[in-house]
Amino acid sequence: MNTHKINISALCILLVISIAFYQCKSNKPTIAYQQKVEAPFAKHDIPFQEYTFDHDKGIKIERGTGTMIKIEGGSFEKKDGTSVTGSISLKVREFHDPTEIFQSGIPMSQDSLRNNFLQSAGMIELRAFSNGEELNLKNNKSVDVELAGFKPSEGYQLYYLESNKNWIVTDKFMSGENNRKKSKLDKILSFLSKPFKKKEAPEEVIFTLFGNVEEAPYLQNLKSQKWKVSGKNITPEVMEAIRINWDEVKVVALDKKKKRYQLQFTKSVSIDYEKSIIKKISVEASPVLDENNANAQDEFEKELKNYEATLQKMEEEKKRVMLEADMVNSFKINKMGIWNVDKLMSAEGVTEVAVSFDFEKDIDPILNNITLFAIYIDDNSVIKYMPGDWKKVKFQTNKRMKLVAVLPNNTIACVEANVIDAKLKSAENKCHFSTVKSDAGSFFKKQG
Q1: Disulfide check for 385: which of 151, 153, 240, 372 has CB 3.0–4.6 Å away?
Q2: pTM summary value
Q3: 283 Cβ contact partners less than 8 Å away, ≥ 6 residues apart
Q4: Does residue 204 sit in helix, strand or coil?
Q5: What burial class does residue 11 get, using C-beta atoms within 10 Å of its C-beta: 0-12 exposed, 13-18 middle, 19+ buried?
Q6: Average pLDDT over residues 409-433
Q7: What are the tens digits of pLDDT across the range 194-229?
Q8: How many helices, marked H, and strands, marked E, lie in the chain?
Q9: 365-366-370-376 Cα dihedral, nearest 10 degrees
Q10: Digit-coded pLDDT (tens) for 278-295
């Protein structure tokens, strides 16, 4: 009899525990969204580049993206308003594509209510330090910024991330051509591209190549070297080459012992407003050396080696400059922090879809605090979704986007744009996705 009572009591206790467990499982705590700058993977955050300068002298920086930053001397003060002296450390980083925005964890919702989301035409973060202490701009000082623009910015505004939380519209900006890029390319392409001075002999043509040493004083090599084209190699095309400007002239050795070289002329010729062709002419020539100088051949060989080294550097610089943005968005900032050329994302073509993923079989999104990021490729924006938001993920049916979930153990689960497009064609308001998993390092390396 007593045994029977004990079993019933144990059963009741087990039933109570089961009910409590079920209630806990079905009423999981909701993870609240917080509007803040937080990189999903601290190890893979976008790094700052650091520039050191004398506070009294200021600094002008031209970055590889085409961005220019100009700071006058005496612009900073400590947060308590006291003066600053000596060396300043300026830290800068830029964000021009949605993967960089995702890496940085910078929120693209306008505020914590997340009613409005921003799409970026370029974003920059600037911080200044003195002996490790972060500084402010003085009230009467500002920093000039020409921010690289890799996409059109018509209809955009200038935003500032106040207290690293909420975006506020601050002022307008000016959009224009990156004249610094154009000037640098003009200097590079002027290398050995000027008209030639020539002397004619009965059966040969002698001329000299001239580089623009005023705009590019380091391009001195072979600037006064005379070249001879024998009569058998003189054609109307060669005579034309001697008389006109060329975008580029290169010297290529054919047979150094026999003093045979090839001069290669290249020029872009416009056909109409939208089309152009590349015109090329090559001619065999030999250097004209001073017969009275016993070291003339050695001196020419030395000049040629210097020329070849300079030509290689010029080609490398040309490739680097070509990566700069063609446009820049110019503005003044009166606060250090994050500045963004933005506009509100259009609600047109956006539908809300409930999503689920294959990894949920093994990983509980709420208990593991899984965050989901919608990366809007064409709008250059990122929206962060907490597990409780997955029933209303915004999908753009007419633009590219992908989904990225941040999983435990430095792992990313990704759904690419083509998979999303296929799913949306066959589903209405619910989508279950299979994901491609990778470690964060491999993912960002692939994106880069």
Answers
A1: 372
A2: 0.71
A3: 229, 233, 238, 241, 262, 263, 265
A4: strand
A5: exposed
A6: 90
A7: 433 444 434 678 877 654 445 444 446 666 778 888
A8: 7, 27
A9: 90
A10: 878 888 888 888 777 777
DSSP 160: E
Average pLDDT, the chain: 83
Residue 73 has pLDDT above 90, yes or no: yes
Written as six digits, the tokens of 303 are: 């000049």
Query: What is the rounded CA–CA span in Å between residue 331 and residue 62?
Result: 15
pLDDT(277) > 80: no
d(C-alpha 67, C-alpha 333), whole Å? 14
pLDDT at residue 417 in the model = 93
Q: Which residue reads 């994050």 in tokens?
A: 338
Contacting residues for 25 by C-beta, under 8 A, at least 6 apart: none
Measure the CA–CA gap between 17 and 5, rounded to whole angstroms.
19
Rg over alpha carbons for the chain, rounded to the nearest Å, is 32
Per DSSP, the residues of 217-281 read TT--TTTT-EEEEEGGG--HHHHHHHHS--SEEEEEEEETTTTEEEEEEEEEEESSSS-EEEEEE
Q: What is the pLDDT of residues 350-383, one digit of tens each?
A: 889 999 999 999 999 999 999 999 999 999 999 9
Provide the token pair at 321: 């400059």
Neighbours of 363 (CB within 10 A): 15
CA 68 to chain centre: 14
Q: Residue with structure tokens 């509980």?
A: 364
| Domains of the chain, each with CATH number or no CATH | 42-176+325-344 (2.60.220.30), 184-322 (no CATH), 348-447 (no CATH)
- Is the pLDDT at 22 greater than 90? The verdict is no
- Contact between 324 and 147 under an 8 Å Cβ cutoff? The reply is no
What is the distance between the alpha carbons of residues 96 and 6, in angstroms, rounded to a whole number?
70
More confident residue, 129 or 192: 129
